[in-house]
Specification:
The structure holds two protein chains of two kinds.
Chain A: H1 20-27, H2 33-36, E1 40-44, H3 48-60, E2 63-67, E3 85-86, H4 98-108, H5 115-135, E4 160-161, H6 167-184, E5 188-191, E6 194-202, E7 205-213, E8 219-223, E9 226-229, H7 250-257, E10 262-263, E11 268-274, E12 297-301, E13 318-319, H8 321-325, H9 335-347, E14 359-362, H10 364-370, H11 372-390, E15 399-408, E16 411-412, E17 425-427, H12 445-467, H13 478-497, H14 503-518, H15 524-544, H16 556-580, H17 604-607, E18 609-614, E19 623-628
Chain B: E1 6-15, E2 24-34, H1 39-52, E3 75-76, E4 79-80, E5 102-106, E6 115-117, E7 120-121, H2 124-133, H3 153-163, H4 170-174, H5 181-193, H6 195-198, H7 201-214, H8 225-229, H9 237-251
Parallel strand pairs in B: 1-5
Antiparallel strand pairs in B: 1-2, 3-4, 3-5, 6-7
Helix pairs in contact in B: 2-7, 3-5, 5-7, 5-9, 7-9
Classes of the chains: A alpha+beta, B alpha+beta.
Bound molecules: flavin-adenine dinucleotide and FE2/S2 (inorganic) cluster (FES).
Amino acid sequence: MSSNSPILDPKCPGGDIETRWDRHRFAMKQVNPANKRKFHIIVVGTGLAGGSAAASLAELGYRVTSLCIQDSPRRAHSIAAQGGINAAKNYPNDGDSVFRLFYDTIKGGDYRARESNVYRLAQVSNNIIDQATAQGVPFAREYGGHLANRSFGGAQVSRTFYARGATGQQLLLGAYAAMNRQIQAGRIDMRCRREMLELVVVDGVARGVIVRNLITGAYERYAGDAVLLCTGGYGNAFYLSTNAKNSNVTASWRAYKRGAFFANPCYTQIHPTCIPVSGDHQSKLTLMSESLRNDGRVWVPKAAEDKRPASQIPEEDRDYYLERRYPAFGNLVPRDVASRAAKERCDAGFGVGSSSMAVYLDFADAIDRDGEDAVRAKYGNLFHMYQKITDENPYESPMRIFPAVHYTMGGLWVDYNLESTIPGLFVLGEANFSDHGANRLGASALMQGLSDGYFVIPYTVCGHLAGRHLQPVTTQHEAFAEAESEARSQTEKLLAVGGSRSVDSFHRELGLTLWDDCGMARSEKGLKHAIGKIAELRAAFWNDVRVLGEEKDLNQSLEKAGRVADFLEFAEVLVKDALNRTESCGGHFRLESQTEEGEAKRDDENFSYAAAWEYQGTGQDAVLHKEPLAFEYVQLAQRSYK
Amino acid sequence: MSAEKTMKLNLKIWRQKNADSNGSIEDFQLDGVSTDMSFLEMLDVLNEQLISAGREPIAFDHDCREGVCGCCGAVVNGQVHGPDEETTLCQLHMRRFHDGDTIQIEPWRSRAFPVIKDLIVDRTAFERIQQAGGFVSVSTGSAPDANTISIPTRDAEKAFDFAECIGCGGCVAACPNGAAMLFTAAKVAQLVTLPQGKLERSSRVLTMVERMDAEGFGDCTNHYECSAACPKGVPIEAIAVMNREYLRATFLSPEGA
Ligand SMILES: Cc1cc2nc3c(=O)[nH]c(=O)nc-3n(C[C@H](O)[C@H](O)[C@H](O)COP(=O)(O)OP(=O)(O)OC[C@H]3O[C@@H](n4cnc5c(N)ncnc54)[C@H](O)[C@@H]3O)c2cc1C
Ligand code: FES
């Protein structure tokens, strides 16, 4: 790849990192309170990022239109987050601080995130806990009545706040309640069962969206002064993932095709503790929260040929390989490290269970120490879920787990203001790329989504609204007609193919290709193979897909078909990004680049940048732009959890 | 894991083109259903079979498939979310059924939840109940440090039991009167159990109950079917709390402390 790629400027303020955000807010143009109601903001997505943004902006007086796929904003994928949310409160008095959270996040991300953003994230983390508590989110409490904390991977302090095993649910219901208050007040116009299919750009500025009404099939146009994409991650490109079934890349992809750069798509997170695949019918994978590694110990038999049931394998014949390899962090190493270690054991023939593609997560010691009731109080819903799916009782025998696609660190490129390369298009939450580098630490996605929505966008959107002299635009503008006809023609094309294979069959095949060639380990050969395979699949899809039903109707096959068509295009950029990055970092492990102990080996000299891809038209290679990453506060080092 | 087996099923499924048309039960035969499949995966397999036969697949709401988003739901052989206790439809597994079984699958039935298509119903009445008052009026940025509000573990746990509601609508479908008491009460009870929610307790219960009544849900006549069917085990006690709060708000000062 050419070394003279164009350079991207993230527009971070300089100077002392502690005061950057303050100074930036002060320097930004303001919208005066009376003028706020003149501006209309379109928020796509109602997860933690979109929900918190919509509510906060409406509280400030902006007119907001909110859109989501599900029949209620409360059902966004964020609802499924289990384990917790980080903040630098230091309530346990164990040495946490804003700087430590910042440091852990940069290091956890394998030095591929932007310092300024991450510092700001750590700074506002505490406000999130205050806000959610005031809304009535029932966080876990100590007996004295104060908030409780637990530990997550990649940190040696306890900074994770939680609500049993349903932290995402409770935080989302908090944001949802805040939205409801604004819907009732008439400041949010909430439109459910809508899917954004196109972004509308007028004079180079994002001014609206085209959506399909998922009940009637009608196309609808929404015009506004700014568009916020809060549409989540693209993990479902792999078909099997822990994401909700409707999670997709469509909104981001269509924005990409209109000029928003896509950054670091190869950074995908494979979570170490998920319930293993059980058969061809499998439609999704279920996460067992990272919080379980507080009390669960990961092991496999010491001898590959040892096929005894777990309960009959004595202590001395077990290999607690995380504790053995990483004595300092033990079972709480970051996710990328834990996943690779599990894969290494299974590939070497030590895997357990009928498929031999699993390792044990064992709670026997915790149950002995604290009693079954204490374990149930912390993890009851997770154990219940495990038992439902596997028909095994994890209080009696260890869980069998294996890594699965879970989260995507890559996303649309945004600057310090969370603005994409299309002015007026802001990207929040998992849909953007900015804060987690090449690997996200547990309990940091909820923190980032809510930070973006509650505490960043309400300020940074002002710079756009007050700073650019926006002319009024209505849905009668020709750009809306053009975008609508684009969306419509894609739908018509899908219905017209009339082939023989279902959408899901293509999606599964794509997923398998990505998992095999661009999953936990990647090589030049595999990636090149994937590129060929994806092109073949895409051609086959447009030749042979069968989408039944009508356009002007509730049509779930058609919805899926549109999303899979986009995944088939997007996957190519994902794989090409992985091919370009010949170093290993975080979740991106290139077989060609490892240390003698088999750990990820970075190449800071050549790859200390965020890779942002610019669309060049169908069939053309995307152009790489680089945002150089400078580390002024954290010293670059080979990550070690030993 | 119990050994995987496969079975053959007779399915009787409600099909309805749209809100304006009449629906009816259709029969399907499905072979090779694995005991390891979830109920929704069984429907996926049926849908693949329908697609290859050129028939439109069955529409059903689903998303998380982990029992927390509240999208899924159907009446299975007369039981809301099927036969397992505290289990959403997506978490129900086929090992619960036997080779040769006949399974009838229908959408939620309630005046307030019109059918949109096949197994999908319109639950927007629930949204309007929440919008009427299911919140604490605290704007972003105005919250005090979280530890200034200290809450006994018992209350936090109690509030959580109520807060677990996923808004699936199973309680309404299970109630012989189609009442939405448990759903509404879960939010009222959660917020009144916590100090943060006490300030608006009177106006909240009054506006939410008023909205609930206006949406065409039935009256509660203490059948307790709602709580028995609830996939999250939201305790029936919520309804007692709401009734108490309602009386209190009606007979004491409207915004009494
Ligand atoms: C099982 C699981 C457990 C997790 N646990 C944790 C945890 O304990 N701690 C943690 O920090 N993180 C956790 N995560 C990660 C975290 O939950 C997500 O990263 C985060 O919730 C994403 O929030 P979001 O607001 O960006 O997007 P989402 O919650 O994914 O919301 C996306 C929204 O966009 C809408 N949408 C998408 N596309 C369109 C379109 N085209 N048109 C209209 N609307 C659209 C959807 O309807 C939805 O409303 C977990 C993730 C999973 C999968
Ligand atoms: S699909 Fe989410 S609860 Fe069943």
